[in-house]
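ok trying again, last paste got cut off:
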Amino acid sequence: MDRLIPAVIGLIVGLAVMSSCVFVVNERNYAVVFALGEIKEVIDEPGLYFKLPPPFQNVQQFDKRILTIDTAEAERVQTSEKKNLLIDSFVKWRISNPRTYFVTFGGNERAAQERLQALIRDALNASINRRTVNDVTSKERDKIMQEIRANTEAAAKLLGVEIVDVRLKRVDFVPEISESVYRRMEAERKRVANEQRSIGAAESEKIRADADRQREVILAEAYRKAQQIKGEGDAKASAIYAQAFGQDREFYRFYKSLEAYRSSFGSKGDMLVIDPSSEFFRFMKSAEGK
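nice, full thing came through this time. structure:
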């Protein structure tokens, strides 16, 4: 029994030593192996690995996933017009070189974030300072984000990290200039609205004038055709009258006289003062007009 206890203790110590010699690297992490405080190896492939027991060798793991730096409060940045803007941004980054990252920051993620924030802040100021408010808020917003990333990429690489993306989440005016900016925007919108109304009125007059011209052309063409048809009708009527007159002149005179009587005495109140012996009454006296 006395000999069994040392054996068990020895087994436990052996297992402890063996467990300290084995470590696992998952797909989300880098593993940096240190030998007496110096970096011996960087492992970026997942799997089961072996090392010497502490203090000869130890392992520290770093996150290889994309990390986010979100500004706690908006940065106050001045434009080329000396207008102050409040800009809220965030940065996507990751460790690209674990060896350089550890040498630079000692594995302290907070220190890395603060350093990257300083780089982004300097690049943001440099980009905004030479642009107008309109450029920052609308025209060149995407260009500014690309520019910030390009300007910080080289410096970040020296720190062992990679800038994946930079985004401007929100761009606001500081309270003291918001009211004046809103008034200017309102005046600009009113100017554009009045300009559009003027253009609309001009187009309306143009359309109305064109419609009136087309109306006159259509009426003139219709009147011409009506006169042409009327003339053709009068010509045919005259031809028929002439043909009837040629066939029986006396009947034609009699018919025309009846039409004249009908037109002259259309109502009871009609009165005609004329000589009874006039040619007008010849068929009143006799059907033969004698």
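cool. Helices lie at 4-20, 98-105, 109-129, 133-139, 141-158, 175-247, 249-264, 282-285. DSSP finds eight helices and nine strands in the chain.
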